[in-house]
Design goal:
The structure holds 2 protein chains of 2 kinds. Chain A has a domain at 115-371: Aspartate Aminotransferase, domain 2. In chain A, 32% of the residues lie in helices and 10% in strands. Chain A has helices spanning 78-89, 112-118, 121-124, 136-153, 165-182, 201-208, 226-232, 255-264, 297-300, 361-397, 427-436, 464-482, 487-492, 504-509, 526-531, and strands at 157-159, 191-195, 212-216, 237-243, 268-272, 292-294, 315-317, 329-333, 336-340, 402-403, 413-416, 443-444, 454-456. Chain B folds into 2 domains: 66-82 and 345-447, Aspartate Aminotransferase, domain 1; 84-340, Type I PLP-dependent aspartate aminotransferase-like (Major domain) (Aspartate Aminotransferase, domain 2, 3-Layer(aba) Sandwich). By secondary structure, chain B is of the alpha/beta class. Chain B has helices at 8-18, 23-26, 49-61, 84-90, 93-96, 108-125, 137-152, 165-178, 221-229, 315-318, 331-368, 392-401, 434-447, and strands at residues 129-130, 156-159, 181-184, 203-209, 233-238, 257-261, 277-281, 294-298, 304-308, 374-375, 383-387, 408-409, 423-427. The chains are: A alpha/beta, B alpha/beta. The interface between A and B is large, with 217 and 217 residues.
Chain lengths: 532, 448
């Protein structure tokens, strides 16, 4: 069956009509928007993007296990490779292009000096298992970042090795399990309390460690319901996992009371530090009575998270949990640095090891460069500007959108979808329309406690005039939605992105997770597959 | 402050729009007892780019960089030449400063390279499906054990004595706190271990490494058959992914899950991270995989496009019932991997592997000729184990004093075990040259 590529179905005035497909080009390209095949569709035998010498003659010692068939990798020359990835890069939105208000993800500016110093040969080209006498500067660098993190959080210890925030959660919760075991209470304290608004990683981490996760409701101010929390605390509770500032972008104003109640019940306080960027330099979490907190270096300290990683999730620990910190850590003996690794004779009861080598050194270097660039004074300003920008967005939109909670927010402004009631426009539609305005949408449908949530986090990196334009765009979209006649336009968005809305249901129903020669034989229409 | 666009005038105007007297008003939900009146004490103030760069140059100068000196260390991190194109590409802002591709219409660049990456990983490993990467090989290995426990509904893993000691340590830690049994076979420096007799009906998986930590190249086909007969999974770990250019892929040996440390392709040594974990399995276990997956689909105009998919396995949907708590991949490191592997292609990757093997084979011949020194391996790829007449840690320190980075004393990773005290692990990649081997051989003659 011949299928039309035009999805407008002939409706007069449809936004699709005339917008995308009527002016076809021979190549399918649209000026700077270049269609790009997969590398597997471009390769030719006999092409190669590297020149390597003939191997010297030497005895083969492969135990007879030499690979027999071809691997199937495509051959491309260097210019083709450069063009391929350059074209792909132009299909991405990025912080470097504009406002990227992805709440809870903190898309702040990634300074390039961070990249430069991470690539100094004396830092980027070091083997993790060189003799420690040859990496004294590297160990000093890690310890220097550790010192900043401990001082900024007001905590006595830090475990540097976790590879990401969720890995840091695992580390912190293992430390709590280890502390309970040392007290002989691990068997009876099997419950972990987590607010309904928590990141999904919190319950996933607790459950992986065998804890039973019990949700704690929020009050109508978007904070933990203290009375419900107190009622849930008991001799079976191991810990509370609480994000602060929380995922609604609000500071847990009763956190000192929470921490007191948790400790009086013999439990520990895990703080999810994903939102530390809102309070760095203004609040030390240690003063709030927490026992441990992971810090996502890419959020608070600007390390790049391109395409979803890498991360780094150091965990600061209270005196009660410090003895259980995992290997490795850096020790200074007089003027020399060494690494305490598995089997080292140490005080305390290390919980084990979470990652090979010494942690995400490349991320440590970048985070330290960011921290040193700001200094103690600049970091405080970072938190203030991030909070100011978010409150400005909230103030400028509260009359046309619907803030989820009253009062000032911290670093992100949370709206629900009640302002879209009866417009036929959903949070998803609204977000997709923002794409056509040249913005990355805010976080949608998170936190789960707010209906149709829209979580806007401008960060401190956005200039006021750029925020004003962003606000103007959202006000315009809001007005358009409220006409009540624009639902089709919203549902058709985005029109101007490299791709229009993608069929996620099809992707999940018939997973195609790798290229195969049979996926798209030349000359066939991918739609036929979709219709199968 | 060069990173902060707001001026004082902006701040005043914005506060007036908000209706707040000062920024302190915005922090009024913070308990008074925890409000810092001024910046955190005892820390320096902001610095210019020049000063920051100088500070890092000072730290760098205190290290001995492998590029400046004879270098033969491997043990799970390998020094290869990374083409300039790779680092240029990953520093493009559209890649570097993009986040997880939650909005596929404007992140097709990331999604397509991850789809290509997944395909490359399946080809290298000989497996059917791969995810969009893990933190690294070490954490990925533990995730593979957890996945095998889920698939088999068993809780007893058998871990080879040829697996990287730190990988073993992570499995041990996870087993202790997450509550499963991990039985560790004893250190296998000779490469003679046979685990077949230890597999039983309670075994969830057997974890082996190829080439092993000590460098031995093994055929695990029979072990795989024994695993499958007992209803267990075979997990094959590869810490030197370049070896797959020359060796039979784990998929052909019957592996059910393959985990690789992908650092060798595209990613520098970086003092241990960030690296990139490759994770591949059989189609039938797809829905038990941890980590992100990218899938192909079509957009509203019928054009091919890519999306994150099967996310109902993941923590942000499933919460406490998720397959793992992971919510990060190694995006940029995966990009470095896939760009480098695309440059290499079939011919380049195979040639690179041949070069590595030839260099290591040359080095082994020269080492074996030293009096009192024995090479333990009959087989290896680019790394092998040497028995010295004295403790290897002393020898490595003495070589380091001569600015030669002459391998890893096994005792550093397996402490308090007299049987490995004299063992030295040596690696040679394509970066090793005759000019680099000469001082190593001369140095060893002097210090032994």
């Amino acid at each position: 069956m011949v299928q039309s590529l035009d999805r407008s179905q002939g409706r007069a005035g449809s936004v699709s009509a005339g917008s995308v497909n009527t002016h076809g080009t021979y190549t399918g390209n649209r000026a700077l928007q270049l269609e790009e095949p997969l590398i597997f569709e471009m390769g030719q035998a006999g092409r190669c993007g590297v020149d390597l010498p003939e191997p010297p003659k030497a005895k083969e010692r492969l135990n007879g296990l030499r690979r027999k068939g071809e691997i199937g990798l495509p051959g491309l020359s260097e210019p083709q490779v450069v063009q391929h990835y350059t074209r792909l890069s132009q299909k991405n939105y990025a912080i470097d292009m504009g406002v990227y208000p992805l709440g809870s993800c903190t898309m702040k500016h990634n300074p390039r000096i961070n990249e430069k110093v991470a690539r100094l040969p004396g830092i980027g080209d070091l083997h993790p298992l060189q003799p420690v006498s040859t990496v004294q500067g590297a160990l000093e660098l890690i310890d220097s970042l550790a010192h900043w993190l401990k001082t900024l959080t007001g905590m006595p210890a830090v475990a540097m090795s976790p590879a990401a925030g969720a890995h840091g959660e695992m580390c912190g919760m293992m430390a709590i399990a280890a502390a309970l075991e040392a007290k002989g209470e691990r068997a009876k304290r099997r419950t972990v309390l987590a607010p309904e608004s928590a990141h999904g990683t919190n319950p996933a981490t607790a459950a992986a460690l065998g804890f039973v996760v019990k949700p704690i409701p929020a009050n109508d101010r978007g904070r933990v319901d203290l009375a419900a929390l107190k009622a849930a605390l008991g001799p079976d509770v191991a810990a509370i996992m609480l994000t602060n500032p929380n995922t609604c972008g609000l500071f847990e104003s009763e956190i000192v009371e929470i921490s007191k109640a948790v400790h009086e019940a013999g439990a520990y306080f895990y703080c999810d530090g994903a939102n530390f960027n809102a309070i760095v330099g203004r609040v030390r979490p240690g003063d709030l009575g927490i026992d441990c907190m992971h810090i996502n270096l890419h959020k608070t300290f600007s390390t790049p998270h391109g395409g979803g990683g890498p991360g780094a999730g150091p965990v600061v620990l209270s005196a009660a949990l410090a003895p259980y910190a995992p290997y490795p850590w850096i020790v200074k003996d007089g003027d020399t640095w060494r690494v305490a690794e598995d089997g080292a004779k140490v005080d305390g009861l290390p919980l084990g090891r979470l990652k090979a080598f010494h942690g995400q050194m490349g991320m440590f270097t970048r985070a330290l460069a960011y921290i040193m660039s700001h200094g103690a004074d600049g970091l405080r300003q970072v938190a203030e500007d991030a909070v100011l920008n978010a409150n400005y967005v909230m103030a400028a939109l509260k009359d046309v959108m619907s803030p989820a909670f009253e009062g000032p927010c911290m670093h992100e402004a949370l709206f629900d979808d009640s302002f879209l009631k009866d417009t036929g426009v959903s949070t998803l539609d609204f977000a997709k329309a923002m794409i056509d305005e040249g913005y990355h949408p805010m976080t949608m449908y998170f936190p789960l406690v707010v209906h149709g949530a829209m979580l806007i986090e401008p960060t401190e990196s956005v200039a006021k005039e750029d925020l004003d334009q962003f606000i103007g765009a959202l006000r315009s979209l809001t007005a358009k939605a409220k006409t009540g006649t624009a639902a089709d336009d919203f549902k058709a968005a985005p029109l101007y992105a490299p791709r229009r809305r993608l069929d996620e249901t099809l992707a999940a129903r018939k997973p195609i997770l790798r290229w195969k020669p049979s996926n798209n034989p030349p000359g066939t229409d991918p739609l036929k597959q979709a219709a199968e | 402050m060069r990173y902060l666009p707001l001026t004082d005038a902006d701040r005043r105007e914005m506060l007036s729009v908000i209706g707040a007297k000062s920024v302190d008003d915005l922090f009024r939900d913070v308990p008074a007892s925890a409000r810092l009146a001024a910046k955190v004490g005892g820390l320096p103030d902001h610095q210019g780019e020049l000063e920051v760069e100088r500070a890092f140059q000072g730290l760098a100068a205190k290290n001995l960089s492998p590029g400046t000196t004879p270098f033969f260390i491997g043990a799970g991190a390998y020094r290869h030449h990374v083409p300039a194109t790779v680092d240029y590409m990953i520093q493009r802002g559209e890649f570097l400063t993009s986040y997880t591709p939650y909005q596929p219409e404007i992140t097709q660049g990331t999604l397509q390279y991850l789809f290509e990456f997944q395909t490359q990983v399946t080809l290298l490993t000989g497996m059917e499906v791969a995810n969009a990467s893990m933190y690294d090989g070490s954490t990925g290995t533990t995730e593979a054990v957890l996945m095998a426990n889920r698939v088999t509904r068993r809780h007893k893993a058998l871990i080879s004595g040829g697996l990287h000691p730190q990988y073993r340590s992570i499995i041990e830690t996870t087993a202790k706190w997450e509550g499963f049994t991990a039985n560790f076979s004893k250190t296998d420096a000779e490469g003679l271990e046979d685990l077949i007799a230890s597999v039983d009906r309670e075994t969830s998986c057997v974890v082996v490494q190829n080439p092993s930590f000590f460098g031995h190249v093994r055929d695990f086909t029979k072990l795989g058959e024994a695993c499958h007969a007992a209803g267990a999974l075979l997990i094959v770990v590869v810490t030197e992914v370049v070896s797959l250019g020359l060796l039979m892929p784990p998929g052909e040996m019957g592996a059910d899950i393959v985990v690789c440390e992908g650092q060798s392709i595209g990613n520098g040594l970086g003092f241990g991270g960030p690296y990139v974990g490759l994770f591949a399995t059989r189609d039938k276990y797809m829905r038990q995989m941890p980590g992100r997956l990218v899938g192909e689909t079509v957009d509203a105009d019928g054009k091919r496009g890519f999306v994150l998919t099967l996310s109902t396995r993941e923590q942000h949907i499933r919460r406490e019932k998720a397959t793992s708590n992971i919510c990060t991949n190694a995006g940029l490191c995966a990009l470095a991997f896939t760009v480098h592997l695309t440059l290499l292609g079939e011919a380049g990757f195979t040639r690179l592997a041949e070069l590595n093997h030839a260099r290591a084979s040359q080095l082994a011949d020269r080492i074996a000729a030293l009096p009192g020194v024995a090479v333990l391996n009959d087989s290896f790829f680019n790394e092998f184990t040497v028995k010295l007449p004295k403790p290897a840690a002393e020898v490595v320190e003495a070589l380091a004093a001569k600015r030669i980075l002459g391998g890893l004393p096994v005792s550093r990773l397996i402490p308090n075990d007299p049987s490995v005290e004299n063992l030295l692990l040596l690696a040679a990649t394509e970066t090793a040259t005759d000019a680099g081997m000469d001082p190593l051989i001369a140095g060893l003659k002097e210090v032994l």
